[in-house]
Amino acid sequence: MALSSVGPAANYPPGIVGVHALPADHHEGPWESILTPPGLKERLLGTSLLILRHGRALGQLNGAPHGLVLLSGPPGTGKTTLCQGLAQKVALALAPRGATTFVEIDPHAFPSDMLGEGPRAVLRLFSDTLPELAARRPHTIVLVDEIEALAVRRSTASFETNPVDVHRATDALLSGLDLLRRTCPQVLVLGTTNFAAAVDEAFLDRADLVLRLGLPDRDTIAEILRQTLAESAAVFPGLAGLADDGDLVADLAERLDGLDGRRVRKLVLSAMGSRPELALDPGRVGADDLRAAADAERASA
């Protein structure tokens, strides 16, 4: 999903891949599209609003928050999409107090660790760049995908890597987070990881909230299928009725049990592309085509 940028990402230091002003109409949708266990979204939204709305006051308390939330879980469970949707929901809730800056960071865009340049770039990001961006608006949300690339678990770092580089990179991130929290209490940092066991213990200890997104159960898979089929029918009316076929949806959910939400959502697209005649006229996709596509997805998992 394309987002309006405050300025070209190329104008910012390495690591930043997007800077956006929220709320924005075209950023609606991601929050609702991800299905989660009951209460998870409420807790995530509540914690985020608490930190951003009352961060300065909370900083005066013992056990003050670090302004850090971590989402973990297997690939395809919607962690990044949920964070993008969260940014929009938070921005809408806080809009009466001003707009929100949403910053996206890619850890793999930092320079090589050679000669310590990578750790220095990380520290500059948190000590200089992010505070500068945070000064523009009352609230700032920073998303760091695949946080384990920066917060490497030092206690189990492989001897195949340079342990000094590992320590420097992780130390730079932790120091940067601590500095950012002291100077900018109106900033919330969101991290995602596919491998929670690879994240450094000190980083986990700083997190105010750690949530795990697991693979969808059959009921959730069925709901994802109903949504996807209904959306597809709005574009290709010939598919109307498939989403309301409870037996079909239940059968497909059973066949897809154990797959992540991303692959479940691609089922209809997979069926449409399974034969040239369906690709030319996707409205002709039927129940048997969906079952065959589900079996193919299952076999390739």
TrEMBL record:
Keyword DNA damage: no
Entry annotated with the keyword Ribonucleoprotein: no
Classification via InterPro entries: AAA+_ATPase (IPR003593), ATPase_AAA_core (IPR003959), ATPase_AAA_CS (IPR003960), P-loop_NTPase (IPR027417), Pch2-like (IPR044539)
SMART domains: AAA (SM00382)
Alphabetical keyword list: ATP-binding, Nucleotide-binding
Gene3D superfamilies recorded: P-loop containing nucleotide triphosphate hydrolases
Coiled-coil regions, chain positions: none
Signal peptide per UniProt: none
Residue ranges of every copy of the AAA+ ATPase domain listed in the record: 65-217
Superkingdom, natural source: Bacteria
Pfam family, one: AAA
Family of the protein in this entry: Belongs to the AAA ATPase family.
PANTHER family: PACHYTENE CHECKPOINT PROTEIN 2, PACHYTENE CHECKPOINT PROTEIN 2 HOMOLOG
Protein name: AAA+ ATPase domain-containing protein
Provenance organism: Blastococcus jejuensis
